[in-house]
Design a protein that fits this description.
Blueprint lengths: L1 E2 L7 E3 L8 E2 L3 E6 L4 E5 L1 E2 L7 E5 L6 E3 L24 E2 L20 E5 L4 E14 L7 E16 L11 E6 L7 H4 L1 H4 L2 E5 L7 E5 H9 L6 E4 L12 E6 L2 E2 L9 E2 L3 E2 L1 E3 L6 E3 L1 H18 L16 E3 L13 E5 L2 E5 L1 H4 E4 L2 E4 L1 E3 L7 E3 L1 H4 L2 E6 L4 E6 L4
């Protein structure tokens, strides 16, 4: 539990403590197997609408699909947000300092947003509402934050987490360092720090903030590594990427392909809102070729499938031949002063007898290389925006 001297934006309840300074309980994080996203649950408004939202360190504004949307996706369970029924809902005036960029309705009264992702978009009305954080624990901790800025989404197109039947996710919980992110709006409580540990299991883990996030990392010093965040005008979590190794073999990839260039071109970001890692084409070709060679040297009869499955292009069909133990390599991303080692099960994903490289080519021009959520599993991450640091340490998150 985090404590703070700032209480004007908060009311809280706790079955074991009546302190008015108890703030920002950790949020539960769950894996959503159909599409590989990680989600949390908060309550919104006076009616306590409680949607699942993906935790997204790659964007600032949190948004939820609202009733009356014109281009919508299906949300099982909670449905769309009935904002008209909430007594605490307000549209954000166009002259509000958090109306950034200053894009407004035709009459100039209210702020609107339009977020473009790699191949999808969300747009709607920037609004304010009361958010209630709840912790799934024996302490039943809650914390209530009024007047937080978020997006009431009315036009959502090609939203990746909504693909397929049975979608329960209604929007996004933004955690980058932009002014509209929850992390920054609540910085008196979060201190611009958060920590998480992602798991493939159906067991929930915790998204922690502020002092709680720091304490969770201090308890795990063995194997702890830290690298600096590239800051400036950028709000996402960029780190300096120097290269890639397969097992202990460094690949001949020019580090310049990962460098952040003028005009916000390229670079390398860490993004929980992206299920899989994306690698820029020149590096992906070298990486793919090295993996094919590594596997062929250890299994002479094993060749890549002519066509991959789903979105993956490097896949192997592992027949259930008795006595054969297939060996797949680990992989290391070399950051400045830190090495992020991914075990084989975080590099390749299994689909029955088929095993695929769980990384994709970044086809979009000028976009960064991305460390996605699948590759981050079984590590505890700590982001400290105030100190511009990212730390990580191996942990069994299940």
């Amino acid at each position: 539990m985090i404590t703070s001297n700032t209480t004007s934006a908060l009311t809280s309840t706790n079955s074991t403590s009546k302190s008015a300074n108890a703030v920002t309980p950790p949020l539960s994080v769950r894996y959503h197997p159909p599409n590989g996203f990680y989600m949390t649950q908060v309550s919104i408004g006076s009616k306590l609408y409680s949607p699942y939202l993906i935790i997204d360190s790659g964007t600032d504004m949190s948004w939820v699909q609202c009733e009356g949307c014109t281009s919508c996706f299906s949300v099982t369970g909670t449905g769309n947000y009935k904002y008209r029924e909430s007594q605490s809902y307000r549209k954000l005036p166009c002259n509000h300092p958090l109306c950034v960029p200053k894009t407004c309705t035709g009459d100039g009264l209210y702020c609107i947003y339009n977020h473009l992702y790699l191949s999808s978009s969300s747009s709607g009305v920037v609004s304010t509402e009361t958010f209630t954080f709840r912790t799934e624990s024996r302490f039943r901790t809650t914390a209530e934050y009024p007047d937080l800025v978020f997006g009431c989404a009315f036009d959502n197109r090609n939203i990746p987490f909504a693909e397929g039947p049975g979608n329960v996710i209604a929007g996004v919980f933004g955690l980058d360092l932009g002014r509209q992110s929850m992390l920054v709006q609540l910085q008196a409580q979060t201190k611009l720090r958060f920590s998480y540990c992602l798991s493939w299991s159906d067991r929930s883990t915790m998204l922690q903030f502020g002092d709680d996030a720091s304490a969770s990392m201090r308890r795990r010093q063995s194997g702890l590594q830290t690298t600096t965040l590239e800051r400036g005008v950028l709000d996402q979590y960029y780190v300096t990427m120097l290269g890639i190794s397969i097992e202990n073999q460094r690949l001949r990839i020019n580090p310049d392909v990962f460098r952040l260039k003028l005009g916000h071109i390229g670079g390398f970001i860490v993004d929980t809102g992206c299920p899989y890692s994306f690698i820029v084409p020149v590096a992906y070709r070298i990486l793919r070729g090295a993996l094919v060679e590594y596997i062929a040297q250890r299994h002479s009869g094993l060749r890549p499938m002519q066509r991959g499955i789903r979105e993956f292009d490097l896949c192997y069909n592992l027949t259930a031949t008795p006595g054969i133990r297939y060996v797949f390599p680990s992989m290391t991303f070399h950051f400045k002063q830190a090495d992020f080692v991914m075990r084989p099960e975080a590099v390749f994903q299994s689909f029955g007898t088929i095993r695929c490289l769980a990384m994709l080519v970044m086809h979009e021009a000028n976009e960064p290389t991305i460390l996605g959520a699948f590759q981050q599993t079984n590590y505890r991450f700590l982001f400290d925006g105030g100190q511009s640091l990212m730390s990580f340490v191996p942990e069994n998150c299940a």
